[in-house]
User: Fold this.
Amino acid sequence: MSAGDLFAKEGAQSLDLPGGELVLYRSPDLGVPGDVLFDRLQRELHWRQEPIQLFGKRYMQPRLLAWYGDDGLSYRYSGIDHEPLPWTATLATLREHVQTLSGVRFNSVLANQYRDHRDSMGLHADDEPELGPKPVIASLSLGEERVFRLKHRHRKDLKPVRLPLAPGSLLIMRGDTQQNWRHEVPKQARPCGARINLTFRYVHPELVRRQ
Assistant:
């Protein structure tokens, strides 16, 4: 994967992705050091582990998660209906920084905690109807570096893209990325510590009501 031109704003970098749009901020100013944010989020968020249905069987998801958002929202994710918790002060401040960097408004955030190298996220796309046709997903990484892997949904001639996401980096997926690509955080052989990933998104309330 090749990198495009550096943007003037905050060192943003456009990444080459056929049929998709990725922008990476390697070390944006979040107002607070990343290690401090990691410790706060690990302590403050209401982490839980939930089951997922696969091939008729129920399994516990191999990570912890927490869902926060504006009052009145609901969101169906991995076959589970979520009612968001109210924004914490830390998450609300981070949302302001991410909105400024992305130029997009977000009304919710899904937090995932990968406790060690054995935790993972399976191959999927953030293409739920509630997110609209061309959703913008802003993904903030804190803690250990993990590989973010993308695979094209239709073109077998394109090799999967492996993108190491360092602590403090912000990856923005926009345009047709979710329609054309799926992504995952695979397990890894090398032991590592915990990683927290915040994926900011906008859930359309009017589309939720139609479901």
User: Anything to note?
Assistant: Residues 32-161+174-210 form a domain with the Jelly Rolls fold (CATH 2.60.120.590). The first strand starts at residue 3 and ends at 6. Helices lie at 34-44, 89-102, 177-180, 205-210. Confidence is low (pLDDT under 50) at residues 1-9.
